[in-house]
Design a protein that fits this description.
4 copies of one chain form a homotetramer.
Chain A (H helix, E strand, L loop, with lengths): L1 E6 L4 H11 L4 E7 L8 H4 L11 E2 L11 E4 L6 H10 L3 E4 L9 H8 L6 H6 L1 E2 L2 H10 L2 E3 L3 H16 L7 E7 L14 H4 L4 E2 L7 H13 L5 E7 L6 E8 L6 H8 L6 E3 L17 E6 L6 E8 L3 H15 L16
Parallel strand pairs in A: 1-2, 1-4, 2-3, 4-5, 5-7, 6-7, 8-10, 12-13
Antiparallel strand pairs in A: 8-11, 9-10, 11-14, 13-14
């Protein structure tokens, strides 16, 4: 059994990790920390876990995380980077669901996240945990930077086109829409039901922290910068991201075949039949990304539609997928979940 | 023109007052206070008001409220009671949308609201602003306590039955459901879209502050205590209250005729035809209460269905109705709004 | 492996059966019928099932259902009663998720469902599939009438009180609220997003088909009629039922202990701690019923709050639970699902 | 008083016309037709209109529409074109809220709408009712083709850029999101609450009927074809369209000033301050279009955000605006409505 610890278990990625790990046959949940709620049974905060998780929240100072085999950080940005070194030194593997280790360029990270980085050397070691790109490195990693939700949906949609070199890389557009759980379980007015309900808006148009992460991921494909306009929107969903991606074709290609071949061995990327229109609910609660590729009116603009559940493939599910890879388990263990529809 | 001031304009009752007063032909909006947002244009916080409200939020200390003809308090409980006396002394009429003046029994108020009352003598003077019951007193009042949202929906549904003396008063049941805006524009986790959305729950079963207010209102009818079980629920609506009321009939009566006669001259209470099932959206954005009365299977249980928009008839609209009455205007001025459906 | 057939697989109970059965380790899905969509891959209608269900819809005339071990009817009322006899004669067990076999009194059934019953003798044989009441009979049944969604939530809430004989049985009140999926996957204006969204209403106040079913279930406890007022409401949820139940206590009792003892061995009934307020989302996607019992202000009215997922414990999940019992499997097989929250 | 008739009053544009016209001081509502519901009081179908609209639905054959001054068609496509000539001949002005007269090219219309056009000569006469472009022609028109919802939001966002000639016209992208009321009050499975709720998807990617309408409108600006990729999405809103528009800048310009100048005299187009992020709810129930223009990271991609209420500025409100213009009334009569927020 893999002994698992979770730092910061009171947010949506935390409860989602618990949902998935509670059903994982190789996992023994050891500890979940919360500074504010130490001593409270986890299932009191999340009654959905009654009967599944018997743990109480532990105070971070007495959590004995170094006795775990792997620790997930489901914390705000800037927390993991202060605690990871000690864990790695103790032989614990770490998967950070926050952004601390996602950007290889430290200056870029510090600019977008507004703080100094505590351990640039570990950034260099960290593996970006997008299995469809980095599976081999994840397998041997001590420290995995779990991708952001938008970056997962956007990269999986663009990568086949970029790898094949069939679209102009200077003018990519990603028009992305997220459910409100993406804002986290934080008491903020903009996330209130009476604010976000029956309402639709763009945000972060001037600049969103996922922009450099996406650009880094896309640039790796060809070892060259890409030009990307990224506009995220808030939509009255609880869960789900829908990315609508636009690119200019530079040469003829069978787009459907391209995508199907790229992802034919991927357990969690479903290239839908030509003409499909993936719905966010078709992946609700599951680790799948469903993708369809279109070429409207046969023009030279390719449109890719990519949907994920932001809390699963966009966060906790991908983290468990990474754990499975890191520990040599079948990659789909505990993740082969039928989406909840309706 | 009536010079109007609003204390505490940044919540949902505040913006709703602004929506209604901006279209009121006899009102000149003078001042809106907000300690935290002084200096910000009101329409920056609420873009829906762009083009309608040119004011900025004023700091409460420099608001010159005593130059108004009437001041609305759209503040948390416990604020109005500290400021009302000075305004009344300056000849300003006051309508409090919070609970400070709703309960005549000071001990009861202090128990439910957890603080000492600052001006018990003014409580004695205050008129409970339910026009369908107290129109004459409101007309001459200096200080009106605007009713709570649940109390409005529940009292209007029970009053005809109690006045006619046709139901047992020891075992009334009010099963009420409210939209999330009823919790106010406050950053609380329980009101988040991802918490309150696609979810339904009861709350305050052990005791809710609107219970003593409702009991006081119903007791007045017959000058005797009533026994009431009140269970409020949170439902994924933005606006709307639906009260389902149960009582035991003690004698035969034509229920439909009883309700129609009671409310025949009321501009804002619509007794629907027999068999109707009022929807909350049929009053969305309007000051109407729609009521239907049923007697399932011809038994001795009467079921009353009563719907209001919690922000209008349950708050700001009723406050404007009270203002109209206090200033001798036609009662429907600025309130004859067609509900927004769908 | 249990060979399973489903008649009528295109509605919400159908797709929910598929979700649960696709993950059932002892089930081999043989056939799913749909007259209108014969030949279409199931996963084309429900993309959530892509990768999990490879079957196509079969035309009912060529479905070879008699080769199954068990057949689920997820059909409109009145279909199963015409087909069940032949299946039973062929040795196939049947679980009907519609209402054809729920009411033992044929005249009552014919009145509420507006048609003649095709096989009254099989009604007499059928077992009402509420395991918490009828587990032993279900174990040996050939034909199980799966309970309705409201009846499940309401009966589980009232039964401990009735069995203990501590409430007046002449004036029970069940104020129930259902998500819109309860209306089925049918093209009806009243179920449109723009009609049912941001709206709340009662319906069926004059009489709902689940009323006689609930009354039958409650009457069985004491072998005597109960007086029940049942008011269902439509609330803007996708899934979920919240029943708020009211009864008059006739003698003192420890209500919390009563409920805990009654359900201590039930795998799918969770009696929550005293003071709890169960949320519908705490059972989303799961077969659990969560219950809390209250006695507001220590008065003589008991309030029971009971929540289920109408498509799981209220339909498909309970049907699988019944199948597990009928085939001697552990009752929780394929049903020990962590609810999806948020 | 202007005598008004409405053909097809049972859909969402019909009830919205009634909401607006019931409050119009110069309008006398004469007749509303519905073949299926003739004889039913309008307020029975739409209880929101109780107390405001006393009419019953009339059978189209006995509607005496030719005695009206103006007739609105709120009908499915293909109805108005068969009835308009007789009305025009009788001296009645006509505003068609459907698509019959929107496309000047008959072959294009017949291709996209799948039927032969009944009166191509009247198409030539019809004026496209976008006041911000065609106000002078609308003033003298007998027949106005009211624009589609998406075309209104998209054209108002692109027009300033095209008129100024500052973006490449061969690669425009319009990523648009609509609330579900845009699909009409039709019993369709895809519009059910349990289908469209908590779900997000693109549709019509291969081709949507509003594409040729938008292209026609944009081409008129420069008398030359534009290249446009238009991807509409369905989002779980009741009302609202959010169009996110992308174009490539071809020369430097002060975008904020450009938009402000273009719309400075338009009563219903609100250019928001630089950096704004318009929300759909900020125009809920109102005839306003709110627009913000962005240039992310100072690059050469301009992003325009344009929001309208699809049932008001996108349908009924714009129709009333056109009526006001056609009859020489102040353009904002009955349309100066404060949006409903929250």
């Amino acid at each position: 059994m893999i002994k698992v610890g979770i730092v910061g278990g009171t947010g949506y990625t935390g409860v989602e990790l618990l949902r998935l790990l509670a059903a994982h046959p190789q996992v023994s949940l050891q500890v979940i920390t919360s500074r504010a709620d130490a001593g409270m049974p986890v299932s009191q905060m999340f009654p959905s876990l009654r009967g599944f998780v018997g743990l109480e929240f532990s105070h971070p100072d007495h959590a004995c995380l170094e006795q775990c085999d792997v620790v997930f950080f489901a914390t705000p940005n800037g927390i993991a980077m202060r605690q990871v070194r000690a864990l790695l030194d103790a032989g614990v593997k770490v998967i950070d669901l926050a952004a601390d280790f996602r950007l290889q360029d430290i200056a870029t990270w510090e600019k977008w996240y507004g703080m100094n980085h505590a351990c640039p050397d570990l950034v260099a070691e960290a593996v970006y945990g997008l299995p469809e790109v980095n599976r081999a490195q994840i397998k041997v990693a001590r420290l995995v930077a779990n991708p952001g939700c938008y970056p997962t949906a956007v990269q999986l949609g663009f990568i086949p086109l970029l790898e094949a070199g069939v679209i102009a890389t200077d003018s990519l557009i990603a028009d992305a829409k997220s459910g409100v759980s993406g804002a986290g379980r934080k008491a903020e007015i903009s996330s209130l039901f009476a604010e976000a309900g029956d309402n639709f808006k763009a945000y972060g148009v001037a600049g969103h922290r996922h922009l450099p992460e996406i650009k880094q991921g896309l640039a790796r494909v060809k070892n060259s910068e890409v030009g990307l306009t990224f506009v995220p929107h808030l939509t009255p969903l609880i869960r789900g991201i829908h990315a609508t991606l636009y690119g200019k074709l530079t040469r003829e290609i069978d787009l459907q075949a391209l995508f199907e071949e790229r992802y034919q061995h991927e357990p969690f990327v479903d290239v839908m039949p030509a003409g499909s229109l993936p719905e966010t609910r078709s992946v609700r609660g599951s680790n799948r990304c469903r993708i369809a590729v279109h070429r409207p009116q046969g023009g030279d603009t390719v449109v890719v539609l990519s949907v994920i559940d932001n809390l699963v493939k966009g966060a906790a599910g991908q983290a468990v997928q990474n754990m499975n890879i890191m520990f040599g388990l079948p990659e789909t263990t505990a993740l082969n979940i039928v989406p909840l529809l309706p």
